Amino acid sequence: MTSMPVLQVSDLSLTYQIRQGEVKAVQGVGFELARGESLGVVGESGCGKTTIGKLLVKLLDPDEGRIRVRFPDTASLKGTEMREFRRHAQMIFQDPYESMNPRRTIYDIVSEPLAVQKIGSVMDRVERVSETLTSVGLTPAADFLFRHPHELSGGQRQRVAIARALVIRPRFVVADEPTSMLDVSSRTGIMLLMQQLARDLGIAYLYVTHDLAVARYMCDRIAVMYLGKVVELAETEELLRNPLHPYTKALLSAVPVPDPGHRREPPNIRGDLTLTVNPPDRCRFL
To answer: An example of a Gene Ontology BP annotation on this entry (predicted)?
Structure first.
């Protein structure tokens, strides 16, 4: 890992206007990611984790803030610059059953980024796709090229999703809960695979998850989100050993412990839940 950041995010915000007022889905988020580093974003459903991932790969446009992935300001890219940006930032979606066209073959699915980016001839693409399928553990690749998604297991489909994201050799990948739809044995294999690819290819990951155990295993640092804001960000072991924010402490207190006799002190949380619409201009957890 080098000190040169692959990704720089500053003051990132996105607000949705609804009839009752404003929902601040993401507000004032900022961080950096170095080559080969993995940052976990954790929090409850609706806190803005997936929204941040979509903003970083330009599936959504922010209201404010700056995103730098090779380009000076990714947030303002259009046209041909946007296509060039896609060569450096990709996303692995949560559900391998819904994120693939069931009518297309595995070769079509994985080679599509190469076709869009006009990389190589047809034979070059067959070779690149075969190499990528092999790297994600789908071997021999020739047995998978012309199969369809319904012919694969859940773990195999997720490996195809990873291959699709990595086939153009991006610098940065958003992984949106890539193991949540899988059984335990497949989940372990996918996590090991992603760690190996980060080491071999130097890919920086933003790893979106609600599972602190997965975040501890996969990530160098963890950012804790609550109602659109990052309330705490630290090195993984430091955050788990010495959480500072009361919401982080509450999350950790909810992690199951494999000991029936273990007893925890309940977190000392006072007050009611903050409304998501027109939230007050203060810490959202108070």
So the answer is: peptide transport
